[in-house]
Amino acid sequence: MVDNVKDAQVGRREAETPVVATSGPLGWWARAKDFLVKVREEVGRVSWPTQREVQATTIVVIIFSLIMGIYLFAVDAAFNKLVEWIFRRLGGAA
């Protein structure tokens, strides 16, 4: 039953969509216009975040970036010390 409803909705959308002539010297113009009309319709359906949501997620990204930067700095420093220790142990110049 649900499939029939979805099929009916898709069929209705297809029926509402105008048929665009794609042949001839101006076929690209009609396709471009049709594309832009569909883009505008789709942008109207987008659920845009509020300013508060944008600020909150921006803060989360900044904090996460700082934490990862500190973590990677610590891992890099530890590997650097390990490599220096290995070179000194094997008699290399470090």
Automatic annotation (TrEMBL):
It is a single-pass membrane protein. It comes from the Bacteria. Its main location: membrane. GO terms for cellular component: plasma membrane. The chain crosses the membrane at residues 56-79. It holds the Pfam family SecE. It is found in: Cell membrane; Membrane. The keyword Transmembrane helix applies. GO terms for molecular function: protein transmembrane transporter activity. Keywords: Cell membrane, Membrane, Protein transport, Translocation, Transmembrane, Transmembrane helix, Transport. InterPro entries: SecE_bac (IPR005807), SecE_sf (IPR038379), Translocase_SecE/Sec61-g (IPR001901). The keyword Glycosyltransferase does not apply. One of its GO terms (biological process) is protein targeting. Essential subunit of the Sec protein translocation channel SecYEG. Clamps together the 2 halves of SecY. May contact the channel plug during translocation. Belongs to the SecE/SEC61-gamma family. This is Protein translocase subunit SecE. It comes from Luteitalea pratensis. The gene is secG_1.
